[in-house]
Amino acid sequence: MRVVLLGTAAGGGVPQWDCACGPCAKARAGELPARTQDCLAVSGDGANWWLLNASPDIRAQITTTPELAPGPGPRDTPVRGVLLTDAEVDHALGLLTLRGAPGLRVHAPATVLHALAGTRAALDRYAEWTWRQVEPEQAFPLAGGLVVTAFPISGKRPRYAAGSPVEGHWVVAYRLFDPRTGGIVLYAPCLADWPPGFDDLVAEADVVLLDGTFHAPAEMGAATGRGGGQSAMGHLPITRSLPELRRHPRVRRVYTHLNNTNPVLDPASAEHAELREAGVEVLPDGACLDV
Ligand code: MLT
Ligand code: MN
Ligand code: ZN
Q1: For residue range 239-254, what is the model confidence (pLDDT) as tens digits?
Q2: Digit-coded pLDDT (tens) for 139-165
Q3: CA-derived radius of gyration, the chain
Q4: Per the database entry, which stretches of residues form a coiled coil (predicted)?
Q5: What does each C-alpha distance from 211 to 110, 165, 201, 206, 257 come to in angstroms?
Q6: Nearest by Cα to 1 from 97, 67, 93, 81
Q7: Which of 93, 96, 101, 104 gets the highest tally of CB atoms within 10 A of its CB?
Q8: Cα(246) to centroid of ligand 1, in Å?
Q9: Does the pTM exceed 0.90?
């Protein structure tokens, strides 16, 4: 399978429009690469492509990715649909950009489909889409030959859904399996802790794309003067996930969903050097992996 990292930043991107923290200032000055919001494209056959999350930057992400160019007919697209890991704004807002393309399929957990009810009702006015509920640990095929399985990760819900009566798994990880190559990719951009059984998922994967939102537990407050919410955001900091990843040197390990306050954005930082020493990667937007 081919995986394209369309975007590698957490909500807001790098730089974020209203942020003058260290990394945002450096990105604005061209001293660090800019990053768009977390989103992947995957394909088993190079002809049928699936988006994992639909970021607010999806238009620019698609128009700069040759694999996703429309054709051969004037309104044909190789994009078959979207798989959502959660209902966060930075992972779902791009659905509205895709409005009007007929026949897209969106796979998501029941919680996420419920949270997006209003968005879905609006989108269904533009084109007929299929909305499919993803059941935990039940594999299903995607057009193009990949087989996907969702694994429950946490009950962390988006702020706008705080009052929702729906209980259950608000965040999942996806395991993508290519029966032709035997390759396995694990995509987990929102990891609140290291859940039971997660080690086994990492161990069997060839590539893991993991939540690298924050490097340290109180990083956002230190960088922006607005601490408050970091611990409630449901993102295990790298200081806690890196020791877990060190147990899996055979696996290609990549941090994504990087917040703009994260010092690993700077290749010259000590924090980035520590990742290099552990063999864990931070890749730029547009990076391609063949698995
Ligand atoms: C998150 O990843 O925790 C959310 O995207 C935060 C947000 O943008 O509200
Ligand atoms: Mn996010
Ligand atoms: Zn910033």
Answers
A1: 999 999 999 999 999 9
A2: 999 999 999 999 999 999 999 999 999
A3: 18
A4: none
A5: 22, 27, 15, 17, 6
A6: 67
A7: 104
A8: 26
A9: yes
Q: Does residue 227 register a pLDDT over 80?
A: no
With beta carbons less than 8 A apart as the criterion, state whether 153 and 168 touch. Answer: no
- CA dist 11 and 14 (Å) reads 9
- Residue 130: exposure state from Cβ atoms within 10 A (0-12, 13-18, ≥19): exposed
Residue nearest to atom 1 of ligand 1 (CA): 233
3-state DSSP of the chain: CEEEEEECECCCCECCCCCCCHHHHHHHCCCCCCECECEEEEECCCCCEEEECCCCCHHHHHHCCHHHCCCCCCCCCCEEEEECCCCCHHHHCHHHHCCCCCCCEEEECHHHHHHCHHHHHHHCCCCCCEEEECCECCCEECCCCCEEEEEEEECCCCHHHCCCCCCCCCEEEEEEECCCCCCEEEEECCCCCCCCCHHHHHHHCCEEEEECCCCCCCHHHHHHCCCHHHHHHCCCCHHHHHHHHCCCCCCEEEEECECCCCHHHCCCCHHHHHHHHHCEEECCCCCEEEC
Would the CB of 171 count as within 6 Å of ligand 1?
A: no
Please give the Cα distance from 164 to 81 (Å, whole number). 26
How many angstroms separate the alpha carbon of residue 222 from the centre of ligand 1? 18
Give the contacts of 165 (CB within 8 A, at least 6 positions apart): none
Q: How far apart are CA 257 and CA 210, in angstroms?
A: 8
Measured in angstroms, how far is the CA atom of residue 2 from the centroid of ligand 2?
23
| 155: Cα separation from own chain's centroid | 17
